[in-house]
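$ ./design --mode recover --in tokens.txt
reading tokens...
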């Protein structure tokens, strides 16, 4: 029998059926359990919850004479309360006048000041487009209403300074090309619509069309979409289907403007009628349908979906391509690939929207900076014609209508680094790995050659993300000789790092593989005690970054002196700024992070048992516990690593299991979990669905077994092994 009782009457031996309050008001993952631990009783009574339901059939009943109510009595009281409400006179409420919408800032700004705001808009825009693609991949209807405010922000930035946002949006890594391309086209179409003096509602339509025009790529298999090389004829046929696929996806949403639908369906049409899907040409292409100029040397659309690097330009995330972005009127290119500005009524005039223009002469593209500046200074003060490379014409979209002549905006050459992913290691280590034939007591053990690596959870994750091609920066607190060596090892490996000094000495870890048995012995030393000012400064720096990263991966143990809720303190700011928080730790820090809310956690089975206080002996129980954590709202995803039994990934959309790969030539297990997490996040960041992300994570975990110590997974092994991973949906 169910009874509702005050919390103060709760005693040991009672079976808790339900708390009368929000799950956020109590510290328990589960609400139904037998109350046996005095500590649990004290924690319940310390909460803000005042009543709870107990099941007297499964536990102790309340003492005779103690106030309690059965389910029937509660229902009867509710009915009585509602009947009393019906007799009350009507209440007239005057709704307050809604506050006016925030004033939009459209005042002209210089490049330096606008770059900061533009960078923040780029991050927010990419997150919105990634979410849009994920919704489409899962078969959900696409809603454009939520994108309207984002289009307005982009429009305002373009109004203040068109060069800033357009230039930043052109910075695409291999991982985010598909998504940032949509953001770039959105900004470019708004810029051109403004140049054409279109009305503001038409400018918004142009921006919305640019943001959603490539949605059909969500229907293309990722192995084709992300292929770096030239597409086969069969693959190209699949790619050519994306305008039609996108049109149908948007059509199902039911609230997409017709102009946006048309731009999505016809953005690959060409003036000469050789485009697709309907082979429209000339005036048959609508005003918002970006057209393509036919390439003189081969079919431009047979290029890889991921463009090659710009010749002579270092492709770092803080370097901009050596080209121009903007809109202008130009003659059609003549001999030498040159084109110049022209009058409004010239017969050869075309209104061009420049996506990216490469240097015309490859010999000049790689010339030293001093020689290039000398040549440019000599020509200062007189107009120079724009140059189109003869060997590779720029991709140019344009509208039928003419432009009021405007010189393109020169891109800045440098901006502050804005990593897409940040990893955090508060307790890094200098890892030393070696081998020995057999470990024996009392004897001197002659070891093999020693290998040293920069280690610690977050650092290991950053090293693997870097190898997979992600834009990542490793944050860590380090000191002493070991800390200096960690810094140098990361620099030698090319991993961007922000190493913050501390007074203590960074710890050292030691692992030995016994060659006679294949067993690995791992010795982990405690970290230095951090001062409050040291960890607080790191926390303040992370939460006040000018531009928030897409992912923040907090991984590893907390050293002495750091509060257990340190990772939990990252959650509110991450959530407010749109950063996805990943936590890989154990014990109280993991429990505190769950209470604060995370995007992803990666516990081992032992760590999950400790947090939930459940045995979780059977696979079905493990899957159920992982998904229950997700449904509780404490995290969006749980990646449960099971060692030799594989792993489980739980989200709101389902649970997937993957058995471990059989790696016969295993040389150690150190760092396998960090490699698993790195590849999982890398895949999710690229927009992969959960089963594919789990496949990549399992491949990286297996690849880590092929190398000694914390050498970590090699990218070639990860790509080779991922096709061997079997992922199955769990019936939970």
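writing sequence...
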């Amino acid at each position: 029998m169910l009874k509702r009782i005050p919390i103060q009457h709760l005693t040991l031996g009672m079976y808790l059926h339900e708390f009368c309050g929000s799950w956020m008001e109590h510290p328990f993952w589960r609400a139904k359990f037998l109350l046996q631990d005095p500590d649990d009783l004290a924690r319940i009574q310390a909460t803000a919850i005042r009543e709870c339901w107990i099941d007297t059939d499964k536990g102790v009943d309340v003492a005779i004479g103690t106030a309690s109510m059965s389910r029937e009595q509660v229902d009867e009281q509710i009915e009585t309360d509602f009947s009393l409400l019906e007799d009350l006179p009507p209440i007239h409420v005057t709704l307050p006048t809604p506050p006016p919408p925030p004033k939009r800032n459209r005042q002209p700004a210089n490049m330096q000041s606008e770059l900061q705001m533009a960078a923040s808009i780029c991050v927010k825009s990419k997150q919105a487009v990634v979410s849009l693609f994920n919704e489409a991949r899962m078969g959900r209807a696409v809603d454009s209403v939520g994108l309207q405010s984002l289009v307005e922000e982009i429009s305002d930035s373009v109004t203040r300074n068109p060069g800033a946002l357009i230039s930043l949006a052109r910075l695409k890594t291999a991982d985010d090309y598909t998504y940032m391309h949509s953001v770039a086209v959105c900004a470019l179409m708004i810029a051109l619509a403004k140049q054409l003096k279109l009305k503001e509602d038409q400018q918004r339509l142009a921006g919305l069309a640019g943001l959603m025009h490539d949605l059909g790529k969500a229907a293309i298999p990722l192995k084709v979409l992300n292929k770096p090389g030239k597409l086969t004829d069969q693959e190209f046929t699949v790619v050519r289907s994306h305008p039609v696929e996108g049109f149908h996806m948007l059509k199902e949403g039911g609230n997409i403007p017709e102009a946006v639908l048309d731009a999505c369906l016809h953005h690959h049409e060409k003036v000469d009628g050789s485009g697709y899907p309907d082979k429209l040409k000339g005036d048959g292409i609508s005003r918002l349908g970006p057209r393509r100029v036919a390439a003189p040397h081969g079919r431009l659309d047979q290029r890889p979906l991921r463009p090659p690097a710009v010749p002579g330009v270092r492709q770092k995330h803080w370097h901009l391509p050596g080209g121009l972005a903007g809109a202008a009127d130009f003659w059609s290119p003549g001999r030498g690939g040159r084109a110049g500005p022209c009058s409004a009524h010239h017969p050869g005039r075309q209104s061009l929207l420049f996506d990216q223009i490469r240097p015309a002469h490859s010999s000049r593209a790689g010339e030293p900076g001093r020689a290039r500046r000398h040549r440019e200074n000599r020509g200062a003060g007189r107009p120079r014609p724009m140059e189109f490379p003869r060997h590779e014409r720029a991709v140019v979209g344009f509208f039928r209508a003419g432009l009021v002549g405007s010189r393109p905006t020169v891109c800045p050459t440098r901006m502050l680094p804005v990593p897409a992913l940040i990893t955090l290691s508060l307790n890094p280590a200098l890892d030393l790995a070696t081998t020995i034939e057999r470990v024996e007591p009392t004897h001197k053990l002659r070891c093999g050659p020693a290998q040293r690596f920069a280690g610690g959870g977050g650092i290991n994750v950053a090293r693997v993300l870097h190898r997979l091609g992600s834009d990542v920066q490793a944050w860590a607190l380090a000191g002493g000789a070991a800390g200096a060596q960690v810094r140098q090892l990361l620099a030698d490996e090319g991993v961007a790092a922000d190493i913050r000094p501390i007074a203590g000495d960074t710890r050292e870890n030691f692992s030995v593989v016994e060659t006679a048995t294949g067993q690995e012995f791992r010795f982990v030393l405690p970290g230095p005690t951090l001062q409050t000012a040291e960890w607080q400064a790191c926390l303040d720096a992370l939460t006040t970054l000018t531009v928030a990263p897409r992912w923040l991966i907090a991984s590893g143990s907390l050293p002495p002196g750091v509060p257990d809720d340190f990772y939990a303190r990252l959650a509110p700011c991450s959530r407010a700024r749109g950063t996805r928080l990943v936590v890989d730790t154990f014990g109280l820090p993991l429990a505190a992070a769950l209470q604060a809310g995370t995007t992803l956690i990666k516990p081992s089975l032992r760590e999950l048992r400790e947090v939930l206080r459940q045995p979780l002996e059977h696979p079905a129980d493990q899957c159920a516990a992982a998904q229950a954590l997700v449904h509780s709202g404490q995290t969006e995803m749980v990646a449960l690593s099971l060692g030799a039994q594989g792993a489980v990934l739980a989200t709101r959309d389902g649970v997937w299991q993957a058995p471990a790969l059989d790696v016969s030539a295993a040389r150690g297990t150190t760092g396998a979990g960090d490699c698993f997490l790195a590849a999982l996040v890398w895949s999710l960041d690229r927009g992969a669905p959960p089963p594919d992300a789990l496949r990549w994570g399992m491949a990286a975990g297996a690849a880590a077994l092929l190398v000694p110590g914390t050498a970590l997974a090699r990218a070639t092994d990860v790509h080779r092994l991922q096709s061997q991973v079997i992922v199955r949906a769990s019936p939970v």
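exit 0
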